[in-house]
Write a structure and sequence with these properties.
Layout (H helix, E strand, L loop, with lengths): L16 H24 L17 H11 L4 E5 L7 E7 L4 E6 L8 H10 L11 E6 L11 E4 L4 E6 L2 E8 L7 E4 L5 E3 L15 H17 L5 H5 L3
Antiparallel strand pairs: 1-2, 2-6, 3-4, 3-5, 5-9, 6-7, 7-8
Helix pairs in contact: 1-2
Amino acid sequence: MLKGKGFVFESETDTEVIPKLAKYLYDRRVAELADESAAKEGMTGDVAAGGVCEGPSFHSVVSEVVEALEGAYALVFKSLHFPGELVACRRGSPLILGIKVQGASDTPTASTLASMNASSVYSQGNSNKPAEYFFASDASAVVEHTKSVLYLEDDDVAHVCLGRYHVYRVDRDHPSGPTRAPTHDRVVQTLQMEVHQIMKGGYDHFMQKEIHEQPQSLIGTMRGRGGPRFLSSFC
C-alpha cells in the first residue's frame, strides 16, 4: 500500500514501515483538514492566503499507527513536524516513563503522586518546575536519574509536550471500532531499587553477574505464583 503511494523502502525490516506509515497518515490527515477548512470558509482548492488550517496532534497520528500495527513493539516517535514533543507506545514489549522534576525531591510526596495519578499531568503542584522524562524498557536504565516511573500498558500512547505528559488509551475492541481517549488509571510508582543493584557487584562483567543471579531472579519472578514447596525447589 505504501509503495503504491510513492514511498521508497531502503531495507526489508518491519521497523522501516512504521515511520513511513506515520508520515503517510500525517499527510493524509493534513489534506483532510485543509479540505474541511476550505469547505467551512466556502472556498475550493487550497486554503486562501491568511487562512489557518491546524494540523493533527502528534499523539493522534501515533494512535492511528498503533491501530494498524500487529505484533509486539515498544516505540518512541520524534518528528520535525512536532518540535519539542515525544510520543511513545507499546504492545507486548515493556516500556516505562521515568519522571524527574528539577529541584524537587527524587521521591514525590503522597499528595504529589495523588495529583499526578488523578490528572495524568506532572507539574509538581503549581511550581511549574522543569521536568525531565525518560523512556526505557526497564527500570534499571533510569534509576540513576529518577525513582518515579510510570509503567505503560498495551496500547497506551504517552505524549510528552511542554514539560508535561498525557497518557491515552487505544481501545481496539470497542464495538464501534478502535477508539482513543485519555486514561487516568496509570499510577506513578516509586522504585525500591538503588543504583548499586544494577552495577556489576564484584563480578568481572554483566553476563557473569546475570548467570549467578538467575536462581534469585527466577524466585522473584515466580513469587506469588507458586507455593513455598515450589519456590524451595529453586533454592
